[in-house]
Design goal:
Elements (H helix, E strand, L loop, with lengths): L3 H7 L4 H23 L11 E2 L5 E2 L2 H14 L4 E6 L6 E2 L6 E9 L10 E9 L21 E7 L3 E6 L4 E6 L5 E5 L10 E3 L10 H11 L11 E2 L5 H11 L2 E4 L14 H14 L3 E3 L19 E4 L1 H12 L1
Parallel strand pairs: 3-5, 11-12, 11-13
Antiparallel strand pairs: 1-2, 3-4, 5-6, 6-7, 7-8, 8-9, 9-10, 13-15, 14-15
Helix pairs in contact: 2-3, 4-7, 5-6
The structure holds 1,6-di-O-phosphono-alpha-D-fructofuranose.
């Protein structure tokens, strides 16, 4: 079976990029180990909470962030990092050519109930002539991503990755090596499965209300087919399901906090997931344009996210055009 490093070698991925991805996957193995320990790791609960021994416990998302930060900043190919858990980007090494953004533990509110979570990452190039990495250096549209992926901590540990040449998946073996299980994944163009947090329905805008209402009408409605629904509240697990068997995932704008464009973050969730989905033949949209065409103006910018099987994403776009 092909290991991740062999696959990179075969497709002649830039060795410096390979080393950046290595730093991420090695850290993710460490995170997976801690997650597997569950309550026995003493890592459940809130950050800075004392356990019965009077020791300070840190939440796993804080620990995952620290581990990734440490590993990436120690890599001389990394020019800077930006994390969902950090207020500002952090400059890395002077000779580094890559910028990495990451959500260290997506779906972390699911940890305490033992539901699948994951690490999401995106790699950008350091712009030419950049002499000083600042938070603004990261404000590049998703189209400029060099690589993106996630490591899923579920019943098995799975890496999904793209370097702009399709999407491959790897399973973590008992020997600590990621082995390729899928190559050139294709998201089916049509689907009968949707994922959205229905409890927010009354806060959505009219086009989204209309689309979901029509979808719920099933075979007798304008969409002419019966849909099944899933909601894991862990985007990484939802995207994994869509890459595996198709579907549509939506976290639209809602009026609960009108100042926010959506719940999900462009740089840590929207862009990397859109890169994977597009590379697998699916589509992704903020209802007006492909998410990867959104020009970021803030490192923690939020974005409405509609992604998955092409036919359904295009239909959602049409509902928003009328
Ligand atoms: P957490 O990381 O705080 O658990 O949030 C997860 C997430 O960003 C994304 O992975 C889910 O799709 C979404 O939020 C779930 O949000 P709701 O709890 O509002 O359904």
């Amino acid at each position: 079976m092909l290991s991740l490093n062999q696959a990179f070698e075969q497709s002649q991925v830039d060795p410096q990029l390979v080393s950046v991805v290595d730093s991420i996957t090695i850290t993710c193995k460490n995170i997976a180990e801690r997650l597997r320990g569950g309550a026995l790791s003493g890592l459940y609960g809130s950050a800075e909470q004392e356990n019965v021994q009077g020791e300070i416990q840190k939440k796993l998302d804080v620990i995952s962030n620290d581990l990734l930060k440490q590993a990436l900043l120690a890599n001389r190919n990394v020019a800077g990092i930006a994390s969902e858990e950090e207020e500002q980007a952090i400059a890395g090494n002077a000779e580094g050519q890559y910028l990495v953004t990451f959500d260290p533990l997506d779906g972390s509110s699911n940890i305490d109930v033992n539901v699948t979570v994951g690490t999401i990452f995106s790699v950008l190039a350091l712009p030419e002539n950049c002499t000083q990495v600042t938070t603004d250096t990261f404000l590049q549209a998703g189209r400029k991503q060099i690589a993106a992926g996630y490591v899923l901590y579920g019943p098995s540990v799975i890496l999904a990755i793209t370097t702009g040449n399709g999407v491959a998946m790897y399973n973590l073996g008992s020997d600590g090596v990621f082995y390729q299980t899928e190559d050139q994944i294709q998201v089916p163009e049509t689907t009968e499965e949707f994922a959205i947090n229905m409890s927010n329905q009354r806060f959505w805008q009219a086009p989204m209300q209309n689309y979901v209402n029509d979808l719920l009408l099933g075979e007798k409605g304008p969409l002419g087919k019966r849909f099944n629904m899933r909601w894991i509240a862990s985007m990484v697990a939802e995207v994994h399901r869509i890459l595996t068997r198709g579907g549509i995932f939506m976290y639209p704008y809602d009026s609960r906090d009108p100042s926010k464009a959506g719940k999900l973050r462009l740089m840590y969730e929207g862009n990397p997931m859109s890169f994977l989905i597009e590379q697998a033949g699916g589509a992704s949209s903020d209802t007006q344009k492909p998410i990867m065409d959104v020009e970021p103006n803030h490192i923690h910018q939020r974005v409405p996210v509609i992604l998955g099987s092409k036919e359904e994403v295009e239909r959602v776009n049409r509902y928003h055009q009328t």
